[in-house]
Amino acid sequence: MSNSSVTAAPQSRMQALDGLRGFATILVLLGHGAASMGWPVLAGAPFFQGYRALVIFFALSGFLITSLMVRELNKTGRIALGAFYYRRAMRLIPAFAVFLVVVAILAANVSFISVSLRQWLSAALFINNYVSGPANAWWVGHSWSLAIEVQFLLIWPLILYFFGPKIALRVAAVVIVLGPIVRIGQYLLFESLRGNITVTFHTRVDSFLIGGAFALLLNDKRFRDQLVKWCLRLAIPATVFITLIEPYVAGIFKLHYYFPIGYTLDGVASGIIIVACLNGSKWVIKFFSFRAFTFVGINSYSTYLFQQLFINHFGPPPWNNAILGIALSVLAGFLGYQLIEKPFLKFSTRKKATNQSPPPLPGPAVPGDKTADVSDQTVTK
């Protein structure tokens, strides 16, 4: 049986996880572009619905964050929470802070960009998923997913720290089971809050915990071999499902599919793909290692942040069109990674070497950092 440790995975297998995140990021770009740039036929096409992209990000983030925390626990007998939160801040905040500054400058000087102080602050404080709501300010509206990631990071590490992996696995299982019930309950009982189901922590955290549960099972000797065996068997069906079948099922039933079972199925499929990639599923690794996927995946956090400026969901700026907007988003992502994320990553790595702390954790679920070299950075996203 191949080694299932995230940190021991060959580069090609971690590259496939970059590609998985890149695939999800491309879905976001195509979905936003089709919906906002006058492509009504494509906007209504199932493939261009980006809901599953965020589930991939969330599951991938939950998996790798949990894996690295369990690895640290197994290696040192403890989890250094202070170092954990420092590394998370170094990965999440710099690029997002630059993005918020850019938005503030543009909002003050460009007529078609309108962001209220309330909207800007709710994004900056990582509470946009509860304060602003899904229909508010496009320019910072996508920060709901980053807010969920931060809220997850404030709670899940504490559960692992105080109660350990076994209790954490039980907590994850309960939340995963309750997730669809909570969504359906909110839909039926609180009509005015139906629009928030897709963006709030309590209705979406189960996607993170599906990834976390896969990580905990993979690091448990009682379950590891069986989990790897079944994930390898189901890897190709899971890939076919999430790339081809799921969008058509979701296209027919829409949120009536996602709320009861869709988010859960997408999360499980993502977990299967992740474990299969780390354990040598040849064809799945080959598919997600496609160069365009891995390139976008490495730069995905900045791409996700800055695409909001180039792909306007509620009407394109006069200098924009769909193809140009997507191209500029990818370019902004590359520059953001090289000029903002990478320098802070190097700084964090130097501090790690000085303090002999564990390696920096993966990038955010709203797509993030390079995952190929787990020895000095390591996803999710």
Describe the structure in your own words.
- The longest helix has 47 residues.
- The chain is mainly alpha-helical and 381 residues long.
- 73% of the residues lie in helices and 0% in strands.
Query: What is the molecular shape?
Result: globular
Alpha-beta content class: mainly alpha
Which bin fits the share of residues in helices? Answer: over 70%
Q: In DSSP terms, counting alpha (H) and pi (I) runs of 4 or more, how many helices?
A: 15
Radius of gyration: 19 Å
The CA-CA distance between the termini, in Å, is: 28 Å
Average pLDDT value?
A: 85
Question: Tell me about the biggest sheet?
Answer: none
Our count of domains comes out at 1
Unreliable runs, pLDDT <50, ≥5 residues?
A: 1-8, 357-363, 368-381
What's the arrangement of secondary structure elements?
Layout: H1 11-36, H2 40-43, H3 51-76, H4 81-109, H5 117-124, H6 128-131, H7 138-141, H8 143-189, H9 201-218, H10 224-253, H11 255-278, H12 282-288, H13 291-298, H14 300-310, H15 322-355
Quick overview:
By secondary structure, this protein is mainly alpha-helical. The protein has 15 helices and no strands.
Which keywords apply here?
globular, disordered C terminus, single chain, 15 helices, mainly alpha, 381 residues, 73% helix
